Amino acid sequence: MIFEENIATFVQNIHQDNKDGHGFDHIYRVVQLAKKILATEPQANSDLVLAAAYLHDTYDEKLYPDVALQKQKVAEFLKSLNYSKEKQDKIFYIIDNMSYSSNLTQQKELDINGQIVQDADRLDAMGAWGIVRTLEYGWTH
């Protein structure tokens, strides 16, 4: 998939120096988990799911001081891939509402696409990789 290669390259460039558990290795695992879940959910939109899975940490406030600027870079990138405003909005809604912290005070409603990305990200937070990522984040922050 050309779109997937383009998004992967864009995300790799953003996360190439990240050593706090949010690097491309994490993104890759989330994408692979999302693909496994997608195989069981034929009603889901794989294009939205994979785009959101790849992009979910590209403007995370824990990682970037200027979230608005980072989000604008992502929007411009998606536009360069001919993603409609509607599709961009759906991707941003998933990213903005899938995190554990964004659901602390009020549970955010996600459709099946968002639920898949959220589950994939949370699955990567469990087990040995979750422990490694927690330590990496603690060491760098």
From TrEMBL:
It comes from the Bacteria. Gene3D superfamilies: 1.20.58.1910, HD-domain/PDEase-like (1.10.472.50). Pfam families: HD. Residues 23-126 form the HD domain. InterPro entries: HD/PDEase_dom, HD_domain. This is HD domain-containing protein. The lineage of its organism: Bacteria, Bacillati, Bacillota, Bacilli, Lactobacillales.
